[in-house]
Structures are given as C-alpha cells and as structure tokens.
C-alpha cells in the first residue's frame, strides 16, 4: 500500500500503542487497538511489535468483517468488530492483558463499587465476561453480554477490553480500569473492601454526566453536578484586555459587600467554638 488512506489516524493508532506501553498496561504484542472510520475500522496487525509498526501495516476492515491489504488483522479483531457493530458511540477500542485486570479476570471476578470511579465504565461495577477461547465468536458474544450498559469489561482468564469516543479517551479509560483493578486487588490483600450501595452509585453516575467537563462543554440546560466555587473576575473585562487585579472586583452573588470591620466581626461570630 503505497499511499494508505487515513494516514493521520494510522499514525495516531501507532502512537496510542506506544503510549499503552509507556503506561505499563500492555504485555508484549498482546494488546491491540482500533479506531472507527466510515464503513469500518482500522486495527493493529497481528504480531508486529509497536516499535516497528508502520502506518501502512495498520489493517483496514469493513463492517462485513472483511479486511484489506497484505497484513492480517489482530487475532482479536472479532471483539473490536462486534463493538463497532453494537455500540454506535464507540470511536475506538483498546484490548490489553494488563497485569491487575488479568489477575482479577483469572479469578473470574467482577470489580465491584469499592470506589466511586468504577462509574467511569458506565455502571455500578465492571463485569467479567465468561471464559471462551481467544479469537472466537463465543468470546466476542460473552464480551458483548458483559458490556451491556458498560464501556469496559474484564475477560475471564484473558484480560480487559474497553471503548470510548476516540483514541485518547479509550486509552485513558484503559488506564483507569487497570488502576481500579490494582486498587481493588491491594485492598483485598488486607481485608474486605466496603462496597458503595446502589443508591450512592446512582448518585455518582448522575454526577458523572458532567464529570471532567468545563462549563462551556456542558449540554444546553445541564448544570454542573458538583457546584464550582464562585468566580471572582469579570469574564467580559478579561477578554477585552482590561482585566482587573485579583480581588479588586465586586464579588459575584447577591450578597452586599460589607465594610471590612463589620465583615471581620461577622466572620468571628460564625467561628466554631474551640475544641
Ligand atoms: Zn487478548
């Protein structure tokens, strides 16, 4: 393939593979990454070390399950394929045999809500898909079951897989899930972790809709789930270059500004008695 299509996306996939190694969430060439294109997806080839991988070796597949070019796709292409077919929101997929996810998967255990961040995968736990031989349709089917309402799952006696809207987000999610698996594993060494109840996790999941977003990125009409601190400067004057010094502006909010002495007295009267 002299001039492969989607050259920048091919390069981004290789960069994501190298980043996966940097993050320490990949073992050898066992991990594989893909990204959606119109009518199909691009996926890492089978058995080529990331350091030596060239953009033209990234394999294009269509949504009929066929591939183009001289290189075979990853032996795990079915799982990627089934995610793109069944999860329209998936823009990229990462599959790894990361240490702690794989260790937990060997116990065929799900990761429960021992930490609220479990919600990053979309639910109140991260399930473990039933075991099936690698590369089979049976494994892919088990994976889809475990991914119901989720964007990540463990794969029994195998590893983990996750997806998100793009390569960056998916790689981030893979790192988060591995961290959660490690934290859970460590907690289990010394006791029985407390599990957050369903009510609290539903509260967390509602808040996650705006998690990590700036005010400008929120959908219209949606409020921040966690109330931000009051903004002190005036955004209008900041944009026209007449930004005032910090603290010189009238504070936001309805409260009238109190003279310094009165404010100090009020603050003092509000103090808790010394313990
Ligand atoms: Zn695998």
Short précis:
By secondary structure, the protein is α+β, with helices and mostly antiparallel strands. It is 34% helix and 12% strand. A hairpin with a 2-residue loop joins β1 (32-37) and β2 (40-43).
Describe the structure in your own words.
The chain is globular, with a radius of gyration of 24 Å. Helices cover 34% and strands 12% of the residues. It has a domain at 7-198: L-fuculose-1-phosphate Aldolase, CATH 3.40.225. A hairpin with a 4-residue loop joins strand 3 and strand 4 (67-68). Strands 4-3-2-1-5-8-7-6 form an 8-stranded mixed β-sheet, sandwiched between helices. The chain has 275 residues and is an alpha+beta fold. The chain starts with 6 loop residues before the first helix and ends in a 5-residue tail after the last helix. Helix 2 packs across helix 4 (137-146) and helix 3 crosses helix 5. Zinc ion binds at residues 30, 76, 95, 97, 134, 158-159.
Please compute the radius of gyration using only Cα atoms: 24 Å
CATH topology of the domain at 7-198: L-fuculose-1-phosphate Aldolase
**Oligomerization category of the chains in this entry:** single chain
Helix segment tally: 8
Topology:
Elements: H1 7-22, E1 32-37, E2 40-43, E3 59-62, E4 67-68, H2 77-86, E5 92-96, H3 99-106, E6 128-129, H4 137-146, E7 152-155, E8 159-164, H5 167-190, H6 198-207, H7 235-239, H8 260-270
Parallel strand pairs: 6-7
Antiparallel strand pairs: 1-2, 1-5, 2-3, 3-4, 5-8, 7-8
Zinc ion (ZN) binds at residues 30, 76, 95, 97, 134, 158-159.
